[in-house]
């Protein structure tokens, strides 16, 4: 059969290899012993192969580990196939190891969560609305801090738990909204019973912070629900030590200040400009209020800004997908983290991602609308909400609508 490209003569009884070699030599010498230029010597071609000889003895069109077969086709060497298989096995082994380690870490974290707040047992609760509502509390618990650490962090020596920050986080179809609830807000405390004496207390005006001091997490949730009309789906609280360790574990958090801040009570000594703040500096920043023109309202804005930036740092893939970093971060955070009984690990991830989205500008940061600051009460100076605007805000959140115009956070 004639080759469609090079008009080869019939080989007769010769083998294919002898036939090809003889014909090439005959044409190369012109049949009379005179060699023809190499460019005129016929080359056998195969589909996808130029057939042009390479000066180093290897066809440049061939891939790594390939050679030309006697029939003109390509074939990978057995050694190359073995190395490819070995590489695939190694990659699968590494991937499997990472996935198993990550799964083990997340299972460990899920079993270690302190689910000490029972929201299901609360009475007289508002009906759930659209979306999900989280109450995020930063407590001033000194648990786990040595005397020297308390001195270094300027936390004082008070025992028990009080709230330094309270943030209502709403997530839904309209994105995330963070609403700060100042601790000195003058509100109606929910009815409660003193566990030591059994004495019953009716609903009465007091500072929002008093609900936490008197009745802990449960009374705080009841009081927030009573004054906002919102159903709190999940609760998360972290103390001083967990906050400091968490910031240090992620390598600090970058904050930009428009002025120097020095506050003796909180220990804040921060230079203006953009700098990475460690755990101690971050704690001083979110606690200080005497250097803020708006006092406690200014502090709540700082808390929102920092917590959103911290959530963004924690929820990055180089932390969440690194078994060793996520273990360190969660181990230290779990020291003082308290959540509700129905909080799953995925709910915490959603919380972090929602706060991270606010930091990226995809959500809203606002304060509850207020009408007066520094009002005189039997319990000291307090903040009065603008109840008309506040109720409109909470109604929009209950219906999973954009918050509209509030007090910017």
Q: Explain this structure to me?
A:
It is a single chain. This protein has eleven helices and 20 strands. With 409 residues, it is α+β, with helices and mostly antiparallel strands. It has a single domain, classed as 3-Layer(aba) Sandwich (Aminopeptidase), CATH 3.40.630. The strands form seven sheets. Strands 3-16-11-4-5-6-17-20 form an eight-stranded mixed β-sheet, sandwiched between helices. Strand 18 and strand 19 form a beta hairpin.
- CATH superfamily membership: LCP protein
Tell me roughly what share of residues is in helical segments: 25-40%
Strand order of the largest sheet: 3-16-11-4-5-6-17-20
CATH class: Alpha Beta
**Rg:** 36 Å
- Overall average residue pLDDT: 78
> Span between N and C termini?
86 Å
- Extract low-pLDDT stretches: 1-22, 24-30, 33-52
Count of discrete structural domains: 1
Main beta sheet strand tally, sense and closure: 8 strands, mixed
- Count the beta strands: 20
- State the helix count: 11
**CATH fold description:** Aminopeptidase
Structural class designation: alpha+beta
Q: What is the global morphology?
A: globular
The fraction of residues assigned to DSSP E strands is 15-25%
The CATH architecture can be given as 3-Layer(aba) Sandwich
Q: What can be said about this structure in brief?
A:
This protein is of the alpha+beta class and 409 residues long.
Record keyword descriptors for this entry:
two-stranded antiparallel ribbon; 409 residues; Aminopeptidase; single chain; alpha+beta
């Amino acid at each position: 059969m004639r080759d469609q490209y090079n008009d080869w003569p019939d080989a007769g009884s010769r083998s294919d290899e002898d036939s090809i070699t003889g014909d090439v030599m005959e044409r190369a010498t012109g049949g009379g012993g005179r060699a023809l230029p190499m460019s005129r010597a016929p080359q056998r071609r195969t589909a996808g192969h130029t057939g042009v000889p390479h000066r180093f003895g290897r066809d440049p069109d061939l891939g790594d580990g390939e050679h030309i077969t006697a029939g003109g086709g390509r074939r990978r060497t057995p050694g190359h196939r073995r190395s490819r298989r070995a590489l695939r096995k190694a990659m699968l082994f590494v991937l499997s190891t990472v996935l198993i380690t990550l799964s083990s870490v997340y299972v460990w974290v899920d079993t270690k969560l302190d689910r000490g707040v029972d929201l299901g047992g609360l009475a007289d609760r508002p009906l759930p609305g659209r979306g999900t509502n989280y109450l995020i509390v930063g407590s001033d618990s000194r648990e786990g801090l040595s005397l020297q650490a308390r001195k270094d962090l300027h936390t004082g020596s008070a025992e028990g738990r009080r709230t330094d920050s309270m943030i209502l986080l709403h997530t839904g179809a309209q994105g995330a909204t963070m609403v700060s609830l100042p601790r000195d807000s003058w509100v109606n405390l929910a009815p409660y019973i003193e566990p030591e004496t059994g004495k019953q207390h009716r609903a009465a005006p007091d500072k929002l912070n008093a609900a936490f001091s008197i009745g802990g997490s449960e009374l705080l949730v009841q009081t927030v629900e009573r004054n906002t009309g919102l159903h709190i789906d999940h609760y998360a609280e972290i103390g001083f030590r967990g906050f400091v360790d968490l910031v240090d574990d992620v390598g600090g958090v970058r904050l930009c200040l428009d002025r120097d801040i020095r506050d003796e009570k909180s220990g804040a000594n921060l230079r203006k400009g953009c700098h990475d703040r460690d755990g101690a500096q971050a704690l001083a920043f979110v606690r200080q209020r005497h250097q803020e023109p708006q006092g406690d309202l200014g502090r709540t804005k700082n808390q929102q800004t920092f917590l959103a930036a911290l959530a963004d740092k924690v929820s990055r893939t180089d932390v969440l997908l690194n078994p060793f970093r996520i273990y360190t971060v969660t181990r230290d955070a779990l020291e003082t983290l308290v959540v509700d009984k129905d909080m799953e690990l995925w709910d915490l991830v959603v919380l972090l991602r929602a706060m991270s989205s606010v930091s990226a500008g995809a959500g809203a940061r606002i304060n509850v609308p207020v009408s007066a600051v520094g009002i005189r009460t039997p319990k000291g100076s307090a903040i009065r909400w603008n109840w008309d605007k506040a109720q409109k805000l909470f109604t929009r959140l209950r219906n999973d609508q954009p918050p509209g115009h509030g007090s910017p956070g």
